[in-house]
Design a protein that fits this description.
Layout: E1 3-7, H1 16-25, E2 29-34, H2 40-44, E3 47-50, H3 66-85, H4 90-96, H5 100-105, H6 109-112, E4 121-123, H7 128-138, E5 142-146, E6 152-157, H8 158-163, H9 174-177, E7 179-180, E8 184-185, H10 191-201, E9 205-210, E10 213-219, H11 220-226
Parallel strand pairs: 1-2, 2-3, 4-5, 8-9
Antiparallel strand pairs: 5-6, 6-7, 9-10
Amino acid sequence: MTSSSRLSWSGETAELKNITDYSRRYGIKLIAITAIADSALAKVSDVVLTLPQAREACPHNLAPTTSSLMQLALGDALAVALLESHGFTPLDFGLLHPGGKLGTLLKTVADIMHTGEAMPLSPLGTRMSDAILEMTTKGFGCVRITDARGALLGIITDGDLRRHMRPNLLDARVDEVMTRGAKTVRRNQLLSETLDILNVMKVTALFAVEAGKPVGIIHVHDLLRAGTA
């Protein structure tokens, strides 16, 4: 069922007649937000939301100030109630609002992540000299360690290198140096959520994972370039 809302403090604005006539002619449900319960607008509406007849903040009690603010607040409340009742998600919002910084925040990790050979990965048993080369070549400041099935087991970061610095570090195996676990994100994770995780964890890069296996990596610089951070 199609419906529309009309806001008028007095409910007697002449310009409303064409709209109300149209809605009546085509059976469109009409919701009125007004301060006059028996106004012309209220009488032809299916639902009437009556606001208190408060004095305007305007010193002459003429310019719409208090009245417009109350109507705006009620309109926002209706919009939020409708959003919740329909299960409207941030991803739905992103589809309808793709532009500007808000649109950027509603993009997902998959939109900007690095995939394939760009990901810094090394299997268990790799010598640290090779792992450091992988980390340096890929330029993300970390390398994730995988098992024989390709699932992620741990991570080695610049910080791990400093903590394990010793003369024979290059001959050691990644198994001895890596930090097990480490935070990951989903490929459909919103960039706004990803930015929050990076800030809370105080890290600069996160791997996107599906079924335990890496599918991409995202760096804080990617978020900066996208205009998110």
